[in-house]
């Protein structure tokens, strides 16, 4: 290896980096490149170099990368990943930022025909240059190659103008041509324009889209164009080397390799490397970042001369780095210091042409590596450079994964305004010295405007005369002086580094950065504001002056406020203003002219004597255009503002999302444009919004017209769902909408009755009934409907009796269902309670409307219209309200027609994608199981926050451009996520859904429900709130899709237990903008005062409904909950958590600049007492124990104390403590003297269960070594892996097991031979080493997810802690005789051996626990797994003297505990839980009485903690299922020889408390799901991953699947654990490459099982193997594991069951017609076949007409097969035929 390392070092000194690519040796070179001498030396040692680099990367089995192969003929080819990223970016931001421009000046005659032929030839050669990109119906983009004939060069003659004009004109034309976007779906991706200036001078402009080219391709093209033109000039055919492949072949091969998983190693690397990297911009910009990145920019250059660059090169060689590595590392330091971040990501482009066949292809191969650097502010510079080199070498070795794939894996989306992950790019290039020519014509490249794709791009150009540093930058983000400062700071930094004077990073001086480091996007503006203010101040000496910008940066106005202490003459004042304006224009430019001057009074002064901007008046700038005036009129109407100016902000004026929706609708109608709701969130200032309105073309949703006469009146989708629920529930009150008012004064209930008749007649929907026909539900308007207001006089009753009767009457009315087929949809009542002193009345007015005809908006309308009509009637006038243009039935008809539009399809597409794989129910823990049918009974909990918190939340919301409701949704989502430990949080929220102005005054059920789905798993608050905003804007932009239709299209499983899609509703108290000032006054009835009457009646339509009521003073919360599933205390806890999250968010308003970077996971939610409870062990003080002792030292001390006591029994052999000590010491002396065993040395133990096994283990420990169990029953392959992985070269074994180690490189010591006798002659242990508690005691190998077992390294100190817990927990009598029945490979053996032997008790060693059946032995404590104890119980084989049974290793059934105690097989049972990584046992629970309910795993052992955490490591409240993390004295050192896995599973403890003896600095991630109850007890739930425990062994299912996949004839395999309790078994589902013929299946399965037995331990071989022809799939194409058949039924194919009766045949016909299917089996599920609520109601109607029975819809819903429905119908028919003949099992209750 020395030779290889020397070659690699020499290569680095020559600026050559060697790395592996596709298993082959590759290099990148700078400077002089790869010399012939070095190339030859590398070639001579190629194999050794590859092996060395493979060893470094830890992946000698690399299978990444791919080979080029031809794409199939006749099909469109896919895009490469690079192309797809560019295509998507182009679609998002359709500018010319991806145009690659080249322009050349020709100083000779250029032949136009020859030039055209040349380019035609090149296009014919490279298909990519004539490829377009077309999206198919499914949205997938494909490449389509066109013929080259359509391509033409454009020739423009400019010879008629003079040379000066020509140069200006050419420059302008070339710039315009190169900026013109391509239409990638139609245009060739290359354009050429030739400008002829004179016979001897022409300019050729070639523009190529980046999707078809890169830098390498540009050089290829220029070379090929020159070669072809030269050949044609010489009259010969071009002789370019033929191309074996086209770019489309590369794209096809790449995508094929990706689908085959060929890049998994690279993907894993980048996922790990970029985890937690910022995805939002981090560079401090001078100007506000545009919403859409603008590819406009400039460049700044500076130089290092040859001497300076030479010093850098020499430094790089000294550090074995390339110059690129040094320059990139220095740039990272600079950017880190500039941004104030130690985590810096820089993009670096690489050619991406590792495959030699790509070298001659034109196309987009370039990739950009996101190079991540940790940039400390201090530390040795040499170490930093060394770390950077290692980091860069790793990154280059993983360069083949396209950036787009890495971003997709990370879940990072492309953005409009920036490139995610990095905004700065660095590259090193060598200056080319070649000259260009077309034949005899010289080409002079013309200078080009820089191609700006990133915020910053630094290019180092290396030439013989030094280094040129070019800084390209986006000039919409940075001022030139900022980049000049950065460039100079970088040059100065490189000079410092090159000089060698700086030894520490802290010694480096970053000159000039202090001037720009703190500059944000608004600071330049602030600087200029200050200058402008100073100029004005100079012209108004002694007068306080304030310069204010009103409005946005784009359309804002400058307002100068002046306080004049003394009056000035008008002319003097005007002259000073003119002088100031002249100086402002001279120094700052014309755009810094004040738009208004404002003279203010002393009331605007602050205490310090300057003008207080908060006290200054807002200047109302006059509106300038008709559109602005139209928009302002709409804003005024909806915001209730007197006047609106040009710079006013919609949300500052009181706008919210509901009003934004109304503005959108109204502006769209008034201005004849199609505005989206997101527009008002992005353009909040009136001038900006009006500009958007002006820019829009007329694309509007069609208006609502009258429905055709005589048409069948279908229901709207919202109505249809409520009608179905009413049918399902047989009429229920949960959708009644009551409104109650308390009146005092004069009231005439007959006049109220007349007013209501007018309203009922005005709104058809209030007098509409709902029936069914063969097509489903239909509505019918009742003409001439009469209306009565119910009246009850309670005034004669006592006050108490009247109040009691009132409550009864109200409750009776509120819960009385509407009969949708007969009733009017509104009822009213008046209850007279008494009279006032002035003769007036005291009473309650009640309105009750069914939701099918009303929503919240409509209820306000109803009350407003009632008051208005009542007032008119009271004055003697006839009732007169404006005529309604349409009725609700017209809307329902229009809605059905709109569903066929493209707009609907687009919106539906959004929802189907957004809600794909949506969770069926929320993750909150229920206090009780759900009833089979939801009861709709609830209660409520109130909460809220104070005015200060409310104000701070409002400030924070504005910072993130959120409405208060959006921020409250975010807060609630965090609470739900942490209380359910699920980042996927779904809630519903209502929207008014009244886009068209025609619906504004219409009563009806317009409201729609939006399903808001959030991912709370973001790193920072800024990232999370950006998603919140986007989800809301997207939902509002797609809000027209009816919720009911969405449920059907998503095919959500039907259930009567809960609502579909979401079960938590979020609402806000809003008046929908209807109660304007003048209308609020109208709520006063003539002579009567009205106020709402509180009535507590809670119909819980959802699991939870959270209502937010926000005023200027407070935010009130009301939680309505389903009391059938939640306790009040649970909801109170949720409320407290929400209040605390709101307070935590409000606290961030104090520093808005830092708020976006606030980590999300630690955001406080829990109270201090809750945190203390979660961190407490709940069972007293920690155990004190000697921390300076080792396991064998405890045994030695015990042997000295009780030498003649029996220590060990096995197969009739009994050893005293003295005898066992002597044997162990003899082995230890031998190991020490002969094998040199000492601390840290691993020694294998492969012995059958006898006294020799125990002596061997103790002997290894005494010699200082650590034992590694090697079970004699293990396959050789597994034993071999452990020996190799642990580097074991010494194994203690017995003569009969020598064969196990044939071919292994290890020395065997036979301990059942003469070893003990040979060393037994002396008892001198002085030569044995001193062993420390921190030394390893043993390494146990457990199943691993990679397919290979992993070794858990346990120290003596870990085990001693557990031993002393046992000593303090169990009595001497209980430990008197401990059964040792567990394999040494399973860590239960640690308890069984060392607990008795360290404390003076007897260890009873047997073959295994089941040996007690054949050979009973006397024991007091049994330590085994539940499945084994169950067998012993059933066999009555538990020894009579057993006092304690310890059970561990797998879930413990309560029946096992109860059976043990009931049969008096023992006095107590312990449930012990713990992974090997936490030293045998982590939690414990003792049972001395029968168990009723779930069995807990108990509490943490002393000196340790068991924490239940979220994926973000947040503490989870009691009851929430989360992952269990363990810390404390038992946590292992890690995984032996596996630092990567150790780092993944053993992490820093964020809750570490050095003062707490239970705490520890390291947390172990168990991967187990648990929950903590209110008493501090833990309950095991399951595994996070596919790891399971069976019979005490931890098994990684992936390891078995991997082995199965390696077997001959196996295509794929899935392994699951099936069954319950002791019947659990591993089941393998195998899909053969070719299904074996009938009769051969069993032989195939047998062969598989035998093959597995050679590769896996017996406990990992599946108990059943099921052959699968095809996998069952979920709707989105994933394997449906839940649908895998049980082993016993696996061979039974799903068969068609034909009808067995005439009724079943009749039903089958009806089903087949409704579902448009043939041959429906009588056991098929109606909904699984595509049925929905509408079709179910039609089925109900068909059954009624065909069978003559009216089966309730609810019954049909519950019985979903033809056979089940036929049985029910038979029962109904029997009832109709003979009432007395009803079968006992067909009764209404059961149905």
From TrEMBL:
The keyword Phosphoprotein applies. SMART domains: PKS_PP (SM00823). The keyword Acetylation does not apply. The lineage of its organism: Bacteria, Pseudomonadati, Pseudomonadota, Gammaproteobacteria, Lysobacterales. Keywords: Phosphopantetheine, Phosphoprotein. InterPro entries: AA_adenyl_dom, ACP-like_sf, AMP-bd_C_sf, AMP-binding_CS, AMP-dep_synth/lig_dom, CAT-like_dom_sf, Condensation_dom, PKS_PP-bd. Its cofactor is pantetheine 4'-phosphate. Residues 622-697, 1698-1773 form the Carrier domain. Pfam families: AMP-binding (PF00501), Condensation (PF00668), PP-binding (PF00550), TubC_N (PF18563). NCBIfam families: AA-adenyl-dom (TIGR01733). It comes from the Bacteria. This is Amino acid adenylation domain-containing protein.
């Amino acid at each position: 290896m020395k030779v290889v390392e020397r070659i690699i070092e020499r290569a680095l000194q020559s600026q050559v980096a060697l790395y592996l690519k596709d298993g082959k040796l590759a290099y990148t070179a700078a400077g002089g490149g790869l010399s012939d001498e070095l190339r030859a030396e590398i070639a001579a040692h190629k194999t050794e170099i590859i092996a060395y680099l493979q060893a470094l990367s830890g992946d000698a089995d690399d299978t990444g990368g791919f080979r080029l192969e031809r794409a199939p003929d006749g099909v469109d080819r896919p895009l490469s990943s690079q192309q797809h990223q560019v295509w998507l970016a182009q679609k998002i931001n359709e500018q010319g930022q991806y145009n690659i421009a080249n322009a050349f000046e020709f100083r000779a005659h250029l032949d136009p025909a020859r030039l055209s032929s040349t380019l035609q030839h090149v296009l014919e050669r490279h298909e990519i240059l004539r490829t377009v990109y077309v999206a198919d119906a499914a949205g997938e983009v494909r490449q389509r190659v066109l013929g080259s004939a359509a391509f033409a060069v454009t020739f423009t003659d400019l010879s008629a103008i003079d040379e000066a004009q020509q140069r200006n004109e050419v420059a302008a034309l070339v710039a315009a041509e190169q900026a013109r976007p391509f239409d990638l779906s139609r245009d060739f991706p290359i354009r050429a324009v030739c400008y002829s200036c004179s016979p001897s001078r022409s300019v050729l402009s070639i523009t190529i889209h980046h999707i078809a080219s890169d830098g390498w391709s540009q050089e290829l093209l220029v070379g090929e164009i020159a070669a072809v033109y030269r050949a044609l000039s010489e009259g010969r055919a071009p002789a370019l080397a033929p191309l074996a492949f086209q770019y489309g072949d590369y794209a096809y091969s790449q995508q094929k390799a990706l689908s085959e998983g060929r890049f998994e190693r690279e993907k894993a690397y980048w996922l790990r490397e970029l985890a937690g990297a910022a995805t939002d911009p981090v560079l401090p910009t001078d100007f506000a970042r545009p919403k859409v990145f603008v590819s406009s920019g400039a460049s700044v250059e500076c130089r290092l001369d040859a001497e300076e660059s030479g010093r850098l090169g020499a430094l790089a060689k000294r550090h074995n780095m390339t110059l690129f590595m040094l320059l990139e590392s220095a740039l990272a330091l600079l950017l880190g210091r500039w941004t104030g971040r130690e985590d810096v990501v820089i993009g670096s482009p690489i050619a991406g042409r590792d495959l030699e066949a790509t070298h001659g292809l034109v196309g987009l191969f370039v990739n950009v590596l996101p190079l991540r650097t940790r940039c400390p502010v201090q530390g040795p510079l040499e170490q930093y450079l060394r770390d950077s080199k290692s980091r860069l070498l790793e990154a280059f070795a993983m360069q083949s994964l396209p950036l787009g794939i890495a971003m997709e894996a990370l879940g990072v989306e492309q953005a409009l305004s920036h490139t995610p992950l990095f905004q700065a790019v660095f590259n090193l290039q060598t200056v080319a010295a070649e000259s260009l020519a077309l034949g005899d014509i010289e080409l002079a490249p013309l200078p080009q405007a820089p191609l700006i794709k990133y915020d910053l791009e630094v290019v180092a150009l290396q030439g013989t005369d030094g280094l040129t540093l070019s800084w390209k930058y986006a000039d919409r983000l940075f001022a030139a002086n900022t980049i000049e400062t950065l460039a100079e700071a970088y040059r100065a930094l490189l000079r410092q580094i090159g000089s060698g004077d700086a030894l520490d990073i802290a010694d480096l001086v970053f000159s000039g950065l202090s001037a720009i480091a703190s500059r944000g996007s608004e600071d330049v503006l602030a600087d200029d504001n200050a200058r402008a203010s100073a100029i004005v101040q100079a012209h108004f000496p002694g007068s306080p002056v304030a310069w204010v910008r009103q409005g946005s940066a784009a359309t804002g106005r400058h307002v100068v406020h002046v306080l004049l202490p003394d009056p000035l003459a008008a002319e003097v004042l005007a002259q000073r203003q003119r002088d100031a304006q002249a100086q402002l224009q001279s120094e700052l430019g014309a755009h810094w002219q004040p738009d208004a001057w404002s003279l203010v009074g002393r009331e605007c002064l602050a205490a310090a004597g300057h003008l207080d901007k908060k006290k200054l008046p807002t200047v109302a700038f006059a509106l300038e255009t008709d559109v602005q005036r139209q928009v302002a009129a709409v804003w005024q109407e909806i915001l209730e503002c007197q006047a609106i100016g040009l710079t006013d902000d919609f949300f500052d004026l009181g706008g919210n999302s509901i009003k934004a929706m109304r503005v959108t609708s109204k502006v769209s109608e008034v201005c004849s444009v199609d505005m989206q709701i997101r527009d008002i969130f992005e353009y909040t200032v009136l001038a900006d919004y009006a500009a958007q309105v002006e820019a829009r073309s007329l694309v509007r949703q069609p208006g609502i017209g009258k429905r055709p006469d005589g048409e069948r009146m279908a229901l709207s989708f919202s109505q249809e769902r409520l009608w179905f629920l009413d049918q399902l529930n047989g009429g229920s009150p949960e959708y009644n909408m009551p409104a109650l008012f308390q009146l005092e004064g004069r009231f005439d209930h007959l006049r109220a009755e007349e007013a209501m008749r007018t309203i009922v007649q005005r709104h058809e929907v209030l007098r509409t009934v709902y029936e069914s026909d063969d097509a489903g539900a239909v509505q019918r308007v009742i003409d001439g409907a009469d209306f009565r207001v119910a009246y009850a006089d309670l005034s004669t009753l006592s006050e108490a009796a009247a109040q009691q009767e009132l409550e009864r009457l109200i409750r009776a009315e509120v819960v009385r269902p509407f009969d949708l087929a007969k009733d009017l949809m509104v009822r009213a009542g008046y209850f007279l309670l008494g009279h006032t002193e002035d003769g007036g009345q005291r009473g309650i007015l009640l309105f009750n409307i069914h939701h099918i005809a009303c929503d919240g908006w409509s209820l306000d309308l109803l009350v407003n219209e009632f008051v208005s009509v009542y007032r008119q009637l009271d004055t003697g006038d006839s009732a007169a309200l404006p005529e309604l243009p349409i009725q609700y039935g017209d809307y329902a008809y229009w809605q059905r027609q709109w569903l066929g539009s493209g707009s609907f399809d687009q919106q539906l597409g959004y929802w189907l994608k957004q809600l794909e794989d949506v969770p069926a129910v929320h993750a909150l823990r229920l206090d009780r199981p759900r009833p089979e049918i939801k009861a709709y009974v609830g209660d409520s909990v109130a909460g809220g926050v104070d005015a200060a918190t409310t104000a701070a939340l409002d400030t924070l919301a504005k910072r993130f451009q959120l409405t208060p409701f959006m921020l409250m949704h975010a807060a609630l989502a965090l609470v739900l996520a942490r209380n359910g430990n699920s980042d996927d949080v779904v809630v519903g929220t209502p929207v008014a859904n009244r886009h068209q102005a025609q619906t504004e005054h219409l009563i009806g059920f317009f409201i729609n429900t939006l399903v808001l789905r959030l991912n709370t798993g973001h790193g920072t608050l800024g990232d999370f709130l950006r998603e919140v905003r986007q989800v809301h804007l997207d939902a509002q932009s797609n809000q027209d899709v009816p919720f009911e239709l969405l449920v059907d299209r998503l095919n959500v499983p039907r259930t009567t237990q809960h609502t579909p899609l979401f079960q938590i509703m979020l609402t806000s108290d809003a008046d929908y903008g209807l109660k304007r000032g003048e209308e609020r006054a109208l709520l006063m009835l003539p002579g009567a005062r009205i106020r709402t009457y509180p009535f507590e009646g809670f119909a819980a339509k959802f699991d939870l409904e959270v209502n937010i009521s926000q005023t200027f003073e407070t935010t009130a919360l009301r939680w309505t909950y389903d009391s059938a599933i939640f306790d009040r205390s649970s909801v109170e806890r949720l409320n407290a958590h929400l209040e605390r999250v709101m307070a935590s968010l409000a606290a961030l308003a104090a520093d808005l600049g830092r708020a976006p970077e606030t980590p999300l996971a630690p955001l406080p939610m829990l109270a201090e007492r809750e945190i203390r409870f979660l961190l407490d062990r709940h069972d007293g003080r920690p155990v004190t124990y000697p921390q300076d002792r080792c396991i064998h030292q405890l045994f030695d001390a015990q042997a000295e104390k009780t030498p003649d006591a029996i220590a060990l029994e096995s197969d009739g052999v009994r050893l005293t403590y003295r005898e066992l000590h002597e044997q162990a010491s003899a082995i230890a002396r031998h190991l020490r003297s002969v094998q040199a065993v000492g601390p840290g040395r691993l020694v294998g133990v492969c012995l059958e269960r006898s006294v020799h096994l125990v002596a061997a283990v103790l002997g290894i420990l005494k010699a200082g070594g650590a034992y590694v169990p090697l079970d004699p029953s293990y396959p050789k392959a597994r034993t071999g892996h452990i020996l190799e992985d642990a580097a074991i070269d010494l194994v203690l074994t017995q003569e009969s097991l020598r064969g196990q180690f044939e071919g292994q490189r290890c020395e065997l010591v036979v301990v059942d031979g003469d070893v003990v006798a040979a060393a037994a002659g002396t008892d001198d242990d002085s030569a044995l080493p001193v062993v420390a508690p921190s030394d390893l005691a043993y390494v146990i190998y457990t199943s691993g997810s990679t397919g290979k077992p992993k070794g858990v390294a346990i120290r003596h100190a870990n085990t001693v802690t557990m031993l002393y817990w046992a000593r303090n927990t169990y009595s001497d009598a209980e430990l008197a005789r401990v059964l040792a029945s567990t394999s040494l490979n399973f860590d239960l053996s640690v308890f069984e051996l060392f607990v008795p032997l360290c404390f003076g008790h007897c260890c009873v060693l047997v073959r295994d626990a089941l040996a007690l059946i054949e050979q009973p032995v006397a024991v007091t404590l049994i330590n085994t797994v539940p499945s084994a104890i169950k067998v012993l119980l059933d066999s009555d084989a538990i020894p009579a003297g057993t006092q304690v049974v310890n059970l561990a290793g797998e879930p413990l059934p309560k029946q096992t505990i109860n059976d043990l105690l009931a049969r008096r097989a023992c006095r107590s049972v312990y449930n012990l839980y713990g992974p090997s990584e936490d030293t045998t046992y982590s939690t414990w629970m003792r049972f001395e009485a029968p168990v009723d309910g779930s069995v807990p795993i108990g509490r943490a052992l002393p000196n340790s903690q068991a924490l239940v955490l979220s994926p973000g490591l947040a503490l989870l409240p009691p009851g929430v299922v989360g992952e269990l993390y363990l810390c404390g004295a038992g946590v292992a050192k890690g995984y032996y020889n596996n630092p990567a896995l150790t780092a993944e599973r053993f992490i820093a403890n964020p809750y570490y408390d050095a003062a707490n003896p239970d705490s520890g600095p390291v947390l172990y991630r168990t991967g187990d799901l648990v929950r903590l109850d209110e008493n501090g007890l833990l309950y095991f739930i399951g595994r996070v991953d596919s790891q399971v425990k069976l019979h005490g062994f931890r098994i990684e299912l992936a390891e078995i699947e991997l082995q199965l996949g390696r077997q001959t004839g196996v295509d794929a395999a899935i392994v699951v654990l099936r069954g319950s309790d002791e019947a659990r078994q591993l089941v393998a589902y195998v899909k053969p490459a070719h299904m074996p013929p009938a009769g051969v299946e069993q032989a195939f399965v047998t062969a598989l099982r035998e093959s597995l037995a050679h590769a896996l331990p017996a406990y990992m071989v599946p108990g059943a193997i099921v052959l699968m022809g095809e996998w069952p799939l979920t709707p989105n194409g994933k394997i449906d594991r839940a649908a895998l058949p049980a082993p016993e039924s696996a061979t039974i194919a799903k068969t068609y069951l034909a009808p067995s009766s005439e009724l079943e045949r009749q039903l089958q016909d009806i089903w087949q017609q409704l579902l448009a299917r043939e041959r429906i089996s009588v056991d098929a599920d109606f909904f699984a076949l595509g049925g929905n609520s509408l079709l179910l109601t039609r089925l109900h109607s068909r059954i009624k007409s065909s069978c003559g029975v009216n089966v309730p819809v609810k019954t049909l819903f519950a019985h979903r097969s033809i056979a089940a429905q036929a049985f029910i119908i038979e029962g109904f028919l029997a009832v109709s035929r003979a009432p007395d003949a009803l079968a006992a099992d067909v009764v209404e209750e059961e149905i």
